[in-house]
Specification:
single chain; 244 residues; alpha/beta; Rossmann fold; 2 domains; six-stranded mixed sheet; 32% helix
């Protein structure tokens, strides 16, 4: 199958750490990024989402002997999105901290993305609320629509955050350790929910995690990062903890 997501030499120089990342993924597949804290995993996600500015090619040339002329390229379905602002990349991101709007009810939090998109894609408030409730039901939160975030448990809030990201049906979804604060049974349930919704929506995903079992359960492909570099990439069945 043809590569849907193709990233070439996406770089960030932090001074003490130089992060470089490349990958190719087919549509509907999920890449897991594993590695110790400080290896550059979350930096990669923020570069893809457009939340960080990559290191310019001229700087890379000075920093790296194995400089590659093609740098900081992010292609989604044949389109270069690297120059686009975050809101126009078609990339959704789920953070460790659910980051819900405290003044909005749950259904309004979920529907927020639908109401903030460009005019021609915008839906009515009534329709967006219906779509939000429909997605909340898939996460087992059908009775939570009119509640406020401060009344939710950590697991409930993270499920609302997932629903908010997925409701706009992004081309690519980035997960930055989305289950790190949850207990084991809930982590497993959410992992199953995400894989099910990935099949339904056919989105391509990249997930950062420190949990080896979680990486193998959710990922089609795994890449290991050490000190800013990828040291191993392969199918999840071939991955073992000794590779980190």
């Amino acid at each position: 199958m043809q590569d849907y997501l193709k990233i070439i030499n996406l770089c960030k120089d932090w001074g003490e750490l130089f992060v470089r990342f490349s990958c190719t993924l087919e549509k509907g597949k999920l890449l897991g990024i594993v590695g110790h804290s400080g290896s550059g995993k979350s930096t990669v996600l923020r570069l893809i989402a457009g939340l960080l500015k990559p290191t310019a090619p001229c700087q890379q040339k000075k920093l790296q002997n194995n400089y590659n002329r093609v740098t900081n390229s992010i292609m989604v379905n044949g389109k270069d999105i690297s120059h686009l602002p975050p809101s126009k990349r078609g990339v959704g991101m789920v953070f460790q901290d659910h980051a819900l709007f405290s003044h909005m009810r749950v259904d309004d939090n979920v529907a927020y993305g639908l109401r903030s998109c460009k005019a021609e894609d915008r839906v009515s408030k009534k329709e967006s609320r219906f779509m939000a409730c429909e997605l909340l039901e898939k996460f087992g939160l059908s009775g939570f629509a009119r509640r406020y975030p401060d009344s939710l448990s950590g697991g409930e809030a993270q499920r609302v955050s997932l629903a908010r990201t997925l409701i706009v049906k992004p081309d690519v979804v980035l997960f930055d350790e989305p289950f790190s604060s949850l207990d084991a049974p809930l982590r497993k349930k959410l992992a199953v929910d995400i894989r099910r919704l990935q099949t339904e929506q056919n989105f391509t995903g990249i997930m950062v995690t420190h949990d080896i079992a979680e990486a193998k359960q959710m990922s089609d492909v795994i890449t290991v990062m050490q000190k800013g570099s990828q040291v191993w990439t392969g199918v999840s069945d071939q991955f073992s903890e000794t590779m980190i």
